[in-house]
Write a structure and sequence with these properties.
Elements: H1 2-20, H2 25-44, H3 48-59, H4 65-70, E1 86-89, E2 96-99, H5 104-116, H6 132-142, H7 150-160, H8 171-178, E3 197-198, E4 205-208, E5 214-217, E6 224-226, E7 229-233, H9 240-246, H10 251-257, E8 271-273, E9 287-289, H11 297-304, H12 308-315, E10 328-330, H13 336-343
Antiparallel strand pairs: 1-2, 3-6, 4-5, 6-7, 7-8, 9-10
Helix pairs in contact: 2-3, 2-5, 2-8, 3-7, 6-7, 9-10
Length: 344
C-alpha cells in the first residue's frame, strides 16, 4: 500500500513539476515558437501547423543536437547553395553536413523558403493553409523525409496538440496565446500570384477557369500575362520575325524582350513576350532554387518574366553563368520588411 501511495505521490509531483515548467516538451516548444510559425505562414503560405509539427518531430521538441548546437530545427542539410556555417551529424549517412543558423527565426525562415522556392514542393501551395493533411501527404510524396510513416506522424502531431488552430490565427493572436522567441514579428503577406493568368482582351466570350482566373478567347489569339508582362505561347512554324510582324513590333524589339539573338529558333510551347520583361520578379517570388533537373539561365528568366541582365547583376553573375542543382538565384531585391526582420 505504501508503494502505491509513493508511486501516486511521485506521479503527482512530476505532473506538478511539468505544469510549473510549462507542460510537456512539445507544449513548451509550441508556446515558444508558435508566433514564428504563424508569421512564416503569412509570409510564405506554409501552414503554421505543419511548420510546428515538423519542428517538433525533426528537432525532438528542440532537444536535438542540431538545435542546441546549430539552431537547425528542421534538419536541413547544406546542399550546394549554402555558404553559411555548418556542422556534422549522422543522419541517412554518417557525418553529413547540416546548416547552422544564428537564431531560431533564421531556421524557420529558411525552412519556409526551402519549401516555397523548390520546384518539387511547388504543388503543395495549391492546397489551402488549413488543409494540413494534404500538406502532410504532399511532403512525404515530394520526398521531404525517407520515413514511410512521416505523413501519419505529422498528422498525429497536429491533432494531438491541436496545432490546426494556428492555421486560422493572426500573428497577434498567436502572440497572445503563448508568446514566442519573436517578440515583434513582421508579417509580410506575399501578394498571391497566378502564373500564366490570361489578359482580359476585347472581343470573344468570357470563361472562368477552375482557379478563378478569367480567360477571353478572341478571334485572333489568347494573350497571357506573367509578372504583368503579356506573352503568347508559340505554335509550330512561328519565328520571332513573324510574331514581331503580327504584334506590330520590330524584330530587334521582340528579340530584346526575350533575351535572344537574331536567328534564334522558337519551339512550339515556348513563351514569347511581346513587351519588355521586368527587372525583378513578382512580389512573393524573391528567389528561385534550382532543382535536380537544372534549367538554363535563359529558361529561368523567361519563366519569371525577368531580364537576364538585371538578374545577373542582382546575383553578381558572370555573362556565361549556367545554373547547377541547388543554386539560389535572387529574383527580387530584399524588401524593407525582410531587412527589418533580419536586423531584429
Amino acid at each position: 500500500m505504501k508503494k502505491v501511495i509513493l508511486a501516486i505521490a511521485l506521479f503527482l509531483g512530476l505532473a506538478a513539476a511539468a505544469q510549473r515548467d510549462g507542460g510537456t516538451p512539445q507544449e513548451r516548444y509550441i508556446s515558444r515558437y508558435a508566433t514564428i510559425a504563424v508569421n512564416e505562414m503569412y509570409r510564405t503560405g506554409v501552414p503554421a501547423s505543419i511548420t510546428l509539427a515538423q519542428g517538433i518531430i525533426e528537432s525532438a521538441s528542440g532537444a536535438s543536437k542540431l538545435v542546441t548546437e546549430g539552431n537547425n530545427h528542421f534538419g536541413i542539410k547544406c546542399h550546394n547553395s549554402w555558404n553559411g556555417r555548418t556542422m556534422r551529424a549522422d543522419d541517412d549517412r554518417r557525418n553529413e553536413c547540416f546548416r547552422v543558423y544564428d537564431s531560431a527565426e533564421e531556421s524557420f525562415r529558411d525552412h519556409s523558403d526551402f519549401l516555397r522556392y523548390r520546384d518539387r514542393y511547388k504543388f503543395l501551395f495549391d492546397f489551402q493553409t488549413t488543409d494540413y493533411k494534404s500538406w502532410a501527404y504532399g511532403l512525404k510524396q515530394a520526398g521531404y523525409a525517407t520515413d514511410p510513416s512521416y505523413a501519419a506522424k505529422l498528422i498525429k502531431c497536429v491533432e494531438d496538440y491541436g496545432l490546426s488552430r494556428f492555421d486560422r490565427m493572426t500573428v497577434e493572436e498567436a502572440m497572445a496565446e503563448g508568446g514566442s522567441e519573436a517578440e515583434r514579428p513582421v508579417a509580410a503577406v506575399a501578394e498571391e500570384q497566378i502564373p500564366d493568368s490570361p489578359l482580359k482582351i476585347e472581343a470573344g466570350e468570357l470563361y472562368t477557369g477552375s482557379a478563378g482566373e478569367e480567360y477571353r478567347f478572341s478571334l485572333t489569339r489568347t494573350l497571357y500575362s506573367r509578372n504583368g508582362v503579356p506573352f503568347v505561347y508559340a505554335v509550330e512554324g512561328e519565328t520571332y520575325a513573324s510574331l514581331a510582324k503580327r504584334y506590330h513590333l520590330l524584330e530587334r524589339e521582340i528579340l530584346k524582350f526575350n533575351d535572344v539573338a537574331k536567328g534564334a529558333e522558337i519551339h512550339a510551347g515556348d513563351i514569347v513576350y511581346i513587351e519588355p520583361k521586368k527587372t525583378k520578379a513578382a512580389p512573393g517570388l524573391e528567389k528561385y532554387i534550382v532543382g535536380e533537373e537544372t534549367e538554363s539561365f535563359h529558361t529561368i528568366c523567361q519563366r519569371f518574366a525577368v531580364k537576364e541582365k538585371s538578374i545577373r547583376k542582382l546575383n553578381g553573375l558572370a555573362a556565361g553563368y549556367q545554373p547547377r542543382e541547388g543554386d539560389e538565384l535572387i529574383l527580387r531585391p530584399e524588401s524593407k520588411l525582410s531587412k527589418l526582420w533580419k536586423k531584429r
